[in-house]
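queue> holo job accepted (2-acetamido-2-deoxy-beta-D-glucopyranose)
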Amino acid sequence: MIQSSFLFFGTAFVLLQLLPGVIGWGKEGHYAVCKIAEGLLTEDAAAAVKMLLPEIAKGELAAVCSWADEIRVHYSWSGELHFVNTPEFRCNYEYCRDCHNSSGDKDRCVIGGINNYTMQLQNYQCSASERKYNLTEALMFLSHFIGDAHQPLHAGFRGDLGGNTISVHWFGLQTNLHRVWDNMIIETAMKSFYNSDLAIMIESINKNITDTWSEDIISWENCTSINTVCPDPYASESIDLACKYAYKGATPGSTLSDEYFLSRLPIVEKRLAQTGGSEMIRSRFFFLGTTFLLLQLLPGILGWGKEGHYAICKIAEGLLTEDAAAAVKMLLPEIAQGEFAAVCSWADEVRFHYRWSGPLHYVDTPDFRCNYEYCRDCHDSGGHKDRCVTGGIYNYTMQLQTYEGSLSDWKYNLTEALMFLSHFIGDVHQPLHVGFLGDLGGNTIPIRWFRRKTNLHHIWDNMIIETAVSFFYNSDFALMIEAIRRNITDVWSADISSWENCAPANTVCPDPYASESIKLACKYAYKGATPGSTLSGFYFLSRLPIVEKRLAQAGVRLASTLNRIFKPQVLISEAYVTLTFL
Ligand SMILES: *[C@@H]1O[C@H](CO)[C@@H](O)[C@H](O)[C@H]1NC(C)=O
Ligand SMILES: *[C@@H]1O[C@H](CO)[C@@H](O)[C@H](O)[C@H]1NC(C)=O
Ligand SMILES: *[C@@H]1O[C@H](CO)[C@@H](O)[C@H](O)[C@H]1NC(C)=O
Ligand SMILES: *[C@@H]1O[C@H](CO)[C@@H](O)[C@H](O)[C@H]1NC(C)=O
Ligand SMILES: *[C@@H]1O[C@H](CO)[C@@H](O)[C@H](O)[C@H]1NC(C)=O
Ligand SMILES: *[C@@H]1O[C@H](CO)[C@@H](O)[C@H](O)[C@H]1NC(C)=O
Ligand SMILES: *[C@@H]1O[C@H](CO)[C@@H](O)[C@H](O)[C@H]1NC(C)=O
Ligand SMILES: *[C@@H]1O[C@H](CO)[C@@H](O)[C@H](O)[C@H]1NC(C)=O
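queue> job finished
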């Protein structure tokens, strides 16, 4: 493509200087895509994007979504990253076959670029001095290339350079087919239907996203948990659409007008919508990465949410036997200042530093099965067995059982084991920590919580608890914990022995907890929470009792596990009368 693309890009660049709005999807297309994406970012992603934007963007992602076109001549190596060429008339795309530049260097195409800049952005958690890449550029490239990958002719045939060499008339204007798809369809639509106002066009695409296409978004975002980004299907869709719509009826020298315009415009609008949707933060990387950063700034953001973990450990603390309480006290690090609950979010705080521990916070289950099986589900995305939340619970319980003996004999760091175990017993009780693989436990389901943009996972980690604290507990979290404890000694007292139930030979029984979680996830968390929906009063009020009970169960079970570890055979239900809360 390079021989003549030079000329093409050269002239396009000159035009761009004169007439902003000429390359890529066209400045309008990229602006629309990023504007749509901006409205769909989670709070965490929006904060990260804001941090990374250059000053000239003045806080607006869409303002720099054509940057990659503007520097294309200057960064001449980047030209080949805007498109991928596919073989003539095959109408399909394959990464290995197609993603290379004209001298055959692998990965040098739009899909390789998307993978590259996604990988770079995964370094977002590193401190600025540790970052190997310029993440401002990575963000601007990534947002642009995801747009390009959706323009059907950016995955067009090699022989005509994605329609660049097919000259056509667009109504009365001489142009080429590539440019019709980059610009003309959008520009004509703006003039014909949107009063020449791009904002109105974006608004009506957004309306379709929340309305006509709301059911489809889950499939647009589809990406397995292993991958942060899934650009290959975008290219496959593009070349398929190029064959079906772009090339069809557009022979060299033909005139394209009303019929072509009106039948292709819906395709263009949908591609713009899909791009914006696909930039939504689907990735654990960005999500957790940015959350981690926020955690540093604003304590209280991960896991069940710092509040949830605090409540669970606070409840457990009050139910420990003397022996267990003494052991816990021995093992607590100094920073805890003797308070167990103070370190129950430690496992979230070290999650970035101890990268290997990330998969131990959750377990993914198959989509829509609504059940959990250790052997089938407990592994990380690389298939390594036992690397999930229940595996972590077994692991750290086993370690804590070596507590006997003198300190110097310990094979494991039992301080860490205690902090991990108490956190993971909390996590396994959060229904969406045992959610579906396809949506990463609700992380990729965008939702409005009352008026705030967030995602379903975050609602269950934090928002339900936070909303309850501010609605019902006078913004005092201690009052909420007190109310849960009152229910434990009162409404739920008869249930406690079943909550504690664990086969006599076992010290810990996390598998039933995971099974309960995914059942609750299906019945309550996912129910009524389709992507893009707004959840408020009814969802909140009907789900809050579930959350409160899960916090109670987690607290009771954490205590009875620790009680069994540090002195076998003591059940809270048996010793119950003698126990008082702190
Ligand atoms: C293809 O990519 C390689 C590696 O970046 C580069 O050295 C080479 O010049 C590129 N080929 C062309 C024709 O630009
Ligand atoms: C990856 O990004 C770096 C930094 O911008 C760039 O030099 C390199 O050419 C990119 N490679 C691909 C395949 O996108
Ligand atoms: C990162 O890239 C942007 C845009 O090219 C540039 O303005 C900025 O100075 C770069 N930052 C660093 C640290 O090099
Ligand atoms: C909205 O969706 C309808 C039905 O699919 C379609 O005909 C229309 O072109 C879409 N409009 C926009 C602006 O996306
Ligand atoms: C997601 O993609 C997988 C594999 O590509 C496919 O089997 C599955 O049906 C897709 N799910 C949705 C909701 O589109
Ligand atoms: C078990 O604990 C050790 C020490 O923290 C850790 O290195 C290992 O990854 C853990 N394995 C699992 C499955 O939790
Ligand atoms: C155990 O882990 C804690 C927390 O990471 C650390 O502060 C302590 O130094 C470790 N102890 C040993 C003996 O390594
Ligand atoms: C206490 O139990 C009642 C009855 O099950 C329930 O409605 C309420 O939400 C619970 N409150 C708390 C704080 O757990």
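queue> Residues 2-280 form a domain with the P1 Nuclease fold (CATH 1.10.575.10).
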